[in-house]
Design goal:
The protein is of the alpha+beta class. The chain has two domains: 52 residues; 140 residues, no CATH class. It is built from eleven helices and eight strands. The strands form three sheets. The chain has a three-stranded antiparallel sheet with strand order 1-3-2. A three-stranded mixed sheet has the order 4-5-6. Strands 7-8 form a two-stranded antiparallel sheet.
């Protein structure tokens, strides 16, 4: 039986091609392909790859944009939904610029093992997990993120973790930017069981 393992002289080219194709490569990916990880270091020394975190490499000169990171996380965590501060940033709501990527997962789902980027996991269930999901294509990957109205409601639900000031800013920006209707907001407030909490703030903006 023949195995599709590259001959030694092709190791570097194979790694370069895979990194360009995937956007990044992990040291353990190289090991699974039968390629010694020392070739990653050699490509870095030649200026063809760059190491962005422990065991994570990207093409040299690659622009590590936020959307690129979302695509990479979505590729590794296909059942996750980007939420809270990451969803705010995605929709350009407010001034938050989180250094972690917020992902919603079912309460029983196993925590993903990612070295990079750093994840912040929020446990959702029922309709709070399944409702309000948008799908976008980024770098050929399906990226799932909660819509603007659902994200505002989530911010109120998780106000003790992210801060009430962030939730209030999200609500004000949702109304100012006209990102959706009040009916949508009320719907998700009920799904997230925060309609009572949000009511006085929403009425003050009416």
């Amino acid at each position: 039986m023949q195995h599709n393992v590259p001959v030694k002289k092709d190791y570097a080219k194979r790694l370069r091609d895979l990194t360009v194709e995937r956007g990044m490569i992990r040291a353990r990916d190289a090991t699974r392909l039968g390629i010694p990880s020392v070739y990653l270091k050699r490509l870095c020394d030649r200026g063809q790859l760059q190491r962005v975190s422990r065991g994570i490499y990207v093409p040299a000169g690659a622009e590590i944009t936020e959307r690129h990171l979302l695509a990479q996380v979505a590729r590794r965590v296909p059942r996750g939904v980007f939420c809270l501060l990451t969803a705010l940033r995605f929709h350009d709501i407010g001034t938050q610029s989180p250094h972690q990527v917020w992902v919603a997962l079912d309460g029983k789902a196993r925590r993903p093992r990612l070295e990079y980027p750093e994840l912040r996991i929020a446990r959702f269930s029922g309709r709070a997990l399944s409702e309000g999901i948008e799908e976008h294509r980024i770098e050929g990957v399906t990226v799932r993120v909660y819509n603007a109205a659902k994200t505002v409601a989530d911010c109120f639900k998780y106000r003790n973790k992210i801060g009430l000031d962030i939730a209030l800013e999200a609500l004000r920006e949702y109304r100012r930017l006209r990102l959706g209707s009040l009916d949508e907001l009320w719907n998700y407030a009920r799904i997230c069981r925060v309609s009572g909490t949000m009511r006085p703030y929403m009425e003050s903006l009416s």
